[in-house]
Amino acid sequence: MAGTWLFTPFLFNPSGFVWRKIVEDWTDWNKWMNNQGGIGIQPDKCWESWWNAEHSHFQHSGLSSGMREASSSIQGFQVIAQVLRPKIECTGVWDTIQAVAYAYDYGMGCVLFAPIAALAWMPVISAIQTRVLFNQAFNRQLHIQPILAGKSKLR
């Protein structure tokens, strides 16, 4: 079920398997992951700011509510770390926890990008996707590729 939610946007987007767009997305995502966070940096600009904003509500919640959320989350380690953050932030352990969380998120991003990139690398997949999405147009003998490329055909 989770795979369906994650990959459906690529299946129903005519440009979802265009290699150039996948490379651009990968570049933008890597830039976002590697930008340095800090005070005043927006969550859409770097991973560190996003991670801190995503877990900021744990600074005001109790240990029991944090443990309850950790037990229902696949990122249980990260949730527990955020709950304990006020107590361990001044120690060197916090930097290690943040590095592990970064590695986890980076690894999951790679796992999600890999099948999309593999499918985009094969031109036949994009052709099949276009054919399936625009089957009625093909039946009426419309030329879809120039439309998707933004070219107009003058007769």
Automatic annotation (TrEMBL):
Give every Glycosyl transferase domain span: 4-102
Q: Which GO terms describe its molecular function?
A: 1,3-beta-D-glucan synthase activity
Q: Which residues form the signal peptide?
A: none
Give the record's GO CC terms: 1,3-beta-D-glucan synthase complex; plasma membrane
**InterPro entries membership:** Glyco_trans_48_dom
- Look up the domain of life of the source: Eukaryota
Annotated GO biological processes are:
(1->3)-beta-D-glucan biosynthetic process
Pfam families xref list: Glucan_synthase (PF02364)
Supply the PANTHER family for this chain.
CALLOSE SYNTHASE 8-RELATED, LYST-INTERACTING PROTEIN LIP5 DOPAMINE RESPONSIVE PROTEIN DRG-1
What name does UniProt use for this protein? 1,3-beta-glucan synthase component
